[in-house]
Amino acid sequence: MTITSAPTSATAPATKPVKKTPIWAKILLGVVILAVIAGSALVSFNFGKFFGATESRDTQVIRSITGEEQVILVTAGMTDVQEEREDGLKFAVGDWSLFTLPGSERSVLVRYEYDAKFGIEGKDVEINRTGDNSYLITIPEFIYLGYANPDLSVANEKNGLLSWTTPEIDTTEVFEELLSERAVEQHIDGFRLTLEEQAELFYSKLVHAIDPAISVDFAFSD
Questions:
Q1: C-alpha to C-alpha distance for 199 and 146, rounded to whole angstroms
Q2: What residue ranges are annotated as transmembrane (predicted)?
């Protein structure tokens, strides 16, 4: 009699238990990740804020300085007396002057009062950054910017009996002559110290209105 034995089944290896991450570790990891993200965002924000604020301030300073047109720094009350004469009606033949009609001469002594304005062309002002918190402002040459409140009065007038034959003296034209280029240069030289002081005061106020901590130096064109 043949005895057949049942095949022996293979024994499955024992399964190792899976280790679970403790809840406290997961919580700690989440806190660390959030802290890193928040820190990075804060650094990025402050970095951008710093450079953005600096750029914005530079732009504001430059615009405030170069945005002005004509800047009146000094308005000076001027008084002058000018004598004008017309010799009278002259008789001539060709290029030969024969004589002047007696009694046709005119003479007038005119008193002028007006407010002369001196300043600069604002568009010609230059500004350069010289440090983290300092600027150099270069002021262009001072110029004459017109006059206001003109008052013309005749202090004395002498006319001959036949002065009606001579054209009247144009007192307005005489007034314009008082403001010739040479006269203007003399006035500017006389007011130069005041003009420089007013320029520094004017532009310092513009800059310090943006940031009182800014340091400003000035240079003046000849």
A1: 18
A2: 23-47
